[in-house]
Design a protein that fits this description.
mainly beta, Immunoglobulin-like, five-stranded antiparallel β-sheet, binds 2-acetamido-2-deoxy-beta-D-glucopyranose, secreted, glycoprotein, Ig-like_fold, identical protein binding, immunoglobulin domain
């Protein structure tokens, strides 16, 4: 009997002990599992490149002569005319470079990805190619890929050209919109970060001095007006000087805009306002809005699909007083020789990036 009891206890003890062991083991497993996927994921390794990044260990390098490499820092000064090769380590790399190179579908630029790195080559760079060049590791999970923001590197490259102190622009007269709620930028960027740059109004001739608060100059952006006001309107240019004669930038027309962002503000009217059969009529749909916001119009009307009408859509900028510039977008529908089927509701739908507005006018026979 006693033996049985002892045996039972022993078995019970073993059981419990085993159970404990297993539990401990299991806990360990859980712990390991918790670490493993994290360790596998490259994202978790972020402290590494970050620490390294702080010491200038960017993955973005420039290939110099004789196979030497130069890690690029935040800014780089290069000479125009000399081909450049940039490399970024990794087997899946994304790039960005001045949009100018894409706009003109420039064949001087080529990008090649190999097993270990990606290569960006720009032949005969010029002052116009000055701008941010950046590369980043692309992380893919199946078909879904994303930029690894912890491993993105950028260098602003100046192609310093003493004959082009300003980064040349394809536009000779640029419009800069000033809004009360956001800083405005007069984009006179320079190719030499050492250049001394000033901002000038044409009429009345006046220099707007950069100070650390309201007006600042950033060679990679231009003059930044922190809180634009109607007084900042006018025609401006920038002037830069290093050693030789000063150079001037393209002209900038600064326009103050006070129309809030939102769906279009639409009005609809008919002219003449009273018609009878046989008359001609113009139905005009007008939108007042921000200068650079495109508006599209869609019409529906009683004689739709049955009779031809003429629709003329246009827009223009209007200075309303000193302080405002408004874009007037208009669509005019002309119906000639009104018939019975032409009387009824004329509906204009105006749409911009923020939304749409629908307005209706009822044309009744006199
Ligand atoms: C840009 O160049 C590429 C190759 O040179 C060509 O396939 C493509 O059609 C071009 N795109 C435009 C918009 O010119
Ligand atoms: C900075 O410049 C603006 C515009 O010229 C001027 O109104 C403002 O008083 C200046 N601020 C300082 C601190 O000098
Ligand atoms: C309609 O508009 C056209 C173009 O603006 C104008 O020539 C015509 O006289 C207008 N017709 C009416 C009936 O207002």
């Amino acid at each position: 009997m006693k033996i049985w009891v002892v045996l039972c206890l022993a078995l019970l003890w073993l059981e419990l002990h085993n159970g404990d062991c297993q539990q401990v083991k299991r806990r360990k497993d859980v712990g390991e599992n918790r670490i493993r996927p994290g360790g596998k994921r490259v994202k978790v390794r972020q402290p590494k490149p970050k620490d390294a990044g702080g010491k200038g260990q960017s993955l973005l390098t420039q290939v110099l002569d004789k196979g030497r490499f130069l890690r690029l820092g935040q800014t780089t000064n290069l000479t125009p005319g000399k081909n450049i090769e940039l490399r970024c380590k990794g087997n899946n790399i994304g790039w960005s470079y001045p949009t100018y190179l894409d706009t003109f579908n420039d064949s001087r630029l080529s990008i090649k990805q190999s097993d270990k790195y990606s290569q960006l080559i720009l032949t005969s760079p010029s002052a116009a190619d000055t701008g941010p060049y950046s590369c980043w590791v692309v992380l893919c999970d199946g078909t879904e890929c994303e930029k690894d923001h912890d491993r993105a590197y950028v260098s602003y490259i100046y192609f310093t050209d003493k004959d082009n102190l300003f980064v040349p622009s394809a536009i000779h007269f640029e419009i800069v919109y000033l809004r009360p709620d956001s800083p405005a930028v007069v984009p006179c960027r320079v190719t030499d970060p050492q250049a001394k740059v000033s901002l000038h109004r044409e009429v009345p001739a006046e220099e707007i001095t950069a100070n650390d608060t309201l007006v600042t100059y950033d060679p990679t952006k231009g003059f930044v007006l922190q809180s634009p006001s109607p007084e900042h309107q006018g025609v401006f240019y920038c002037k830069a000087v290093t050693k030789g004669t000063p150079q001037v930038s393209t002209m900038y027309q600064l326009l103050y805009v006070e129309v809030p962002s939102g769906p279009p503000f639409v009005s609809l009217e008919a002219s003449p306002d009273s018609v009878r059969g046989g008359d001609n009529i113009n139905v005009t749909c007008t939108v007042l809005g921000e200068p650079e916001v495109d508006v599209s119009f869609t019409w529906s009307y009683p004689g739709q699909d049955h009779r031809p009408v003429h629709i003329l859509t246009s827009w223009r900028l209007v200075n309303r007083g000193k302080a405002h510039t408004t874009r007037v977008s208009q669509s005019v529908m002309t119906v000639e020789d009104m018939e019975t089927i032409d009387f009824g509701n004329y509906v204009c739908k105006a749409k911009n990036q923020h939304g749409e507005t629908i307005v209706t006018i009822d044309i009744i026979s006199k």
